[in-house]
Design a protein that fits this description.
Elements lengths: L2 E3 L8 H7 L8 E3 L9 H6 L3 H12 L5 H12 L11 E5 L2 E5 L9 H5 L2 H12 L4 E7 L3 H10 L5 E8 L5 H8 L6 E7 L2 H12 L2 H9 L2 E4 L6 H20 L9 E6 L4 H11 L4 E8 L4 H8 L1 E3 L20 H8 L4 H14 L1 E3 L2 H10 E5 L2 H15 L5 H17 L5 E5 L7 H7 L8 H12 L5 H4 L11 E3 L3 H8 L1
Parallel strand pairs: 4-14, 5-6, 5-8, 6-7, 7-15, 9-10, 9-14, 10-13
Antiparallel strand pairs: 1-2, 3-4, 11-12
Helix pairs in contact: 1-6, 3-4, 3-11, 4-6, 11-12, 17-18, 17-19, 19-20
The structure holds pyridoxal-5'-phosphate (PLP).
Length: about 500
């Protein structure tokens, strides 16, 4: 099996796709074919631990990694890094409605599931493709990705990581998570600007010839920890398969039974991983794609028109406030039977006009596989309250969007298929909104809010968030957005 670009046919290995991150033609790397489960294989996987399942499933895609290399990657990423050593526990909240909790890692958001293992995958990939190189990870973040990437790459040999965040654009807790980061190879810097300034600054630096020469002279190379990298997608396929195995193991379903999957969606990476699991043979009936008020995806699934010419809203589920879902490009490639010309044309139109329309046959397939829905902040709050009052289950603002949209789908369609709902963040990461949803009154002090939420809900504050209260602030840099290149050179 090889990897090819969504915009131009090519043939590269899995490790090269991960080392490069993005294709030179602007496209994204996708597997040239999908490995399929053998008869009885899911039942076999059901008997294994999460780490063993992960190694077996990753091996199918990353076939130029040896079994030992993958076992080491998995061990480093998932052993002792997650609560109770269970990276992805599944909890049934009521009749066949299961919440897949993906936030038990060091930063309390689902990005840990991939960013804990990406550094290992990348280090092996660099070793195969350009040994002795230092990989410099550049990140512009609006909050969750930056911390998860820092935590993953801290003190990983052969790597350095530099994170830029908008000084006034992240929550206090997110800022503290980043500015207290330990590690000899990490740098964190605030930008006097917004997230777009940080993001365009990073993009410019990726394309800057002078800086490229500066790095070359030091045997260094930039790379990205963004979800455009297949190395971030592959580990996400694992947990959907693993959750199905857990349902099998607990006798909730029998081999071959179908399930639905619901995902709170932003960049379309998480839900695409579930779609990839289905292409391998996981019996999934419907993908429920849940959005907040930035409902560009539910409009797209309804009409086949992707149109980003619309107002951008700031919501209480900020990690889903996004108008360009990068990974949709991969889905278009697969649904169009690998039509590179069509994908290139649509992406050019998106860049030029901010919109595109897919052909009718693609829309038909899209609607067969996906249901799109969205809800407001007020509706998500109502769902948080309902879930807590009725099922004594506390969910965060992002997960609440998925639960809300799933419940509407189930009611409208009468579909009672067991469902796996991806839960993407700890409620404590968005404690003020969650506390307000429960009828509490969030004060200014982030730690007081977490303590109040803990008291009201009877759930513990995650240790990594509680520990921030006494952690030393190590990164105090704050620079003008014009000075990012200079900052990078001073760090390197
Ligand atoms: C990143 C993120 C999402 C969106 O995931 P995508 O893979 O970008 O669709 C949803 N919820 C939380 C909490 C996130 O951090």
């Amino acid at each position: 099996m090889f990897f090819t670009s969504t915009r131009k046919n090519c043939n590269i290995t899995a490790s090269a796709a991960i080392a490069k991150g993005i294709s030179g033609d602007g496209g994204l790397f996708v597997p040239s074919e999908f490995p399929r489960f053998a008869e009885g294989e899911l039942e076999q996987l059901a008997k294994l631990s999460y780490k063993e399942r992960a190694a077996r499933i990753l091996q199918k895609f990353l076939n130029d990694y040896s079994a030992e290399e993958l076992a080491r990657c998995v061990e480093g990423a998932y052993e002792g890094r997650f609560d109770n050593n269970e990276p992805a526990p599944l909890k049934e909240i009521y009749n066949n409605v299961n919440i897949l909790e993906l936030w038990h890692g060091p930063t309390c958001a689902f990005k840990d599931m991939a960013l804990q293992i990406l550094p290992y995958l990348l280090t092996v990939a660099t070793g195969k493709n350009c040994p002795d190189r230092t990989t410099v990870i550049l990140v512009a973040t609006s909050g969750d990705t930056g911390k998860a990437a820092l935590e993953g790459f801290a003190d990983v040999p052969g790597t350095k990581i530099i994170v830029f965040f908008p000084r006034d654009g992240v929550s206090d807790m997110q800022k503290l998570q980043m500015t207290t980061q330990k590690g000899e190879n990490v740098a964190v810097c605030a930008i006097e600007g917004n997230f777009d300034d940080a993001q365009s600054g990073v993009k410019n630096i990726f394309g800057d010839k002078k800086i490229a020469e500066f790095l070359e002279a030091r045997n260094m190379e930039f790379s990205s920890a963004n979800s455009i990298n297949f190395g971030r997608l592959a580990p996400q396929i694992v947990y959907y398969i693993s959750s199905y195995c857990d349902l099998l193991k607990n006798g909730k379903i029998s081999a071959g039974d179908v399930v639905n999957v619901a995902v709170p969606t932003g960049n379309f990476g998480n839900i695409l991983a579930a779609y990839y699991a289905k292409q391998m043979g996981l019996p999934v009936k419907r993908f429920i794609c849940a959005s907040n008020r930035n409902n560009i995806l539910s409009d797209f699934i309804a009409t086949g028109i992707y149109d980003r010419n619309r107002p951008f809203f700031t919501t209480e589920s900020p990690s889903m406030d996004i108008l360009i879902s990068s990974n949709l490009e991969r889905l278009l490639y697969h649904l169009s039977n690998e039509n590179c010309e069509l994908v290139s044309r649509l992406m050019d139109e998106l860049k030029r006009d901010g919109r595109y329309t897919v052909p009718a046959d693609i829309l038909t397939k899209l609607k067969q596989e996906f249901y799109g829905g969205y809800c407001s902040d007020a509706e998500a709050r109502q769902t948080i309250k309902n879930c807590f009052d009725k099922y004594h289950y506390l969910c965060d603002t992002h997960t609440a969007v998925a639960v809300n949209v799933y419940q509407r789908y189930a009611k409208d369609s009468g579909d009672t298929t067991p469902v796996i709902i991806a839960s993407t963040a700890s409620p404590y990461k968005f404690a003020p909104a969650v506390l307000n949803a429960l009828g509490g009154n969030a004060s200014e002090d982030g730690f007081a809010v977490m303590e109040e939420l803990s008291r009201v809900s009877g759930t513990p504050i995650p240790a990594p968030l509680a520990a921030l209260k006494t952690a030393e602030v190590r990164h105090k840099n704050s620079i003008a957005k014009e000075d990012m290149a200079e900052f990078i050179c001073s760090v390197l």
